[in-house]
Predict the 3D structure of the following.
Amino acid sequence: MHLEQLKPFIDFVINWYWIPLLLLYAGIISAILIENRNPTKTVAWILVIIFLPFVGLILYYFFGQKFVKVKKIKRLNKEQAVRLEKKWKELDPIMESFIQDIQEDIGDLSKVFRLMKKERLSSPTLNNDVDLLINGEVKFDWLLRDLALAKHSIHMEYYIFELDSIGLKVLNQIEQKASEGVKVRLIADSFGSPDLVKYMRKHKDSKIDFHAFLPVTFTSLANSNYRNHRKICVIDGRVGYVGGINISDKYINASELPNKMYWRDTSLRVKGLAINLLQVSFWSSWNQTDGESFYLEDGYLQALQENSEVKGIAGVGFVSSDPASIGPYNMEALLIAIGEANTKIQLCTPYYIPSEELERALIIAASSGVEVELMVPSKSDSFFVQHASFSFLKPLLERGVKVYLYNKGFLHAKTAVFDNKLAFVGTVNLDIRSFYINYEIAAVVSDSKFAVQLSNQFEEDKAQSELLTLRVWKARPRWQKAADSLCRLLAPLL
């Protein structure tokens, strides 16, 4: 076909291309409005689409659309809730008794446990052993020993499982246990653990029952924004782990790696009746994969009296959330604790991109006389997230919140302590992604000894931190302030 013959078509496209493009933009913007999102996020996406032609559409396709599997996950959540409802009703008077005992110890902070009970998130439990694990080198020492003692089952669910030195140690250990007849089930997020996913696909003969969570394929690229950020391990229904530490060498501060960035993180080791709750959480995640379901009654749950080695007194429950949760439960649990705290609040997070509710709760607490301390890394692993985070600090500083910038390395811990009575240790960052988008979990511990330990660690970390003042914040270079403001525009999308 000659160029002259194509000329009318080319002229038509040049003159009228804007009509289909306008219709496309109108359709997408209408869809965003119909979804009835948070107004801030709605406006942010509309601005991105309008002022970043074509690029904005691509960003929205990958990161802006509502999770197309939400309806399926909601259905699964409902089905599992129905399966557990009978047990919930049987346990109701016991849970109420536990909450009353917890209330005697920590007062109205116990309302966090009432949220767990009412929303069927977790049964409050008493008489648990809890160990605070600071950094990967401590956690992996405990974890490898516990894995070596496994006799019945190993359940692991991790966002990042790398095949480096520590990853191979863990993988070899659980493969050995699987060959000995221990039932090993492993879930890894397909986006966070691509090397493990490839490895397991090549080793079809492995006796580990492995499934990638939310596999990322060409047809599911739009869903890659939704990730399983949890880090859970349950061994024999006897001992469990939860917290911010993934399986990776970067969490270990080894002396033979002098140039490696120091990685400050926190996890929790728990034994007691609370293990049943962690087992149920894993069971729920497993049922959202292609793995064959299993009955919790088949040796995966233990009664407290069967675990004579447990000597602790800690009250423990778990708050979990996912993209299909009815509410942002982890944020709600934190809001309850912030509102009921009387003397001191200490928060650690690598990413601070708060919801309006969280920001206002912290400001109100500080303004009412509660000592509120927030610790964030001075240098993040993400330029955009760091500057977006910094843009939210000024209102806190103006109202009396003490903000500390951790300088020793990268602060990855996700913890909170309230009045040295109640503690949170989990996978939840203080950002919109953790509250609304990711699969997350946090252990809530009512135990003054444990809370004081976590508070003391906060004080140790303060020695490695700089107290940020409003004067220092205002004196920063203009380019940093500009970067903060620009990155803040992306905050609802990060």
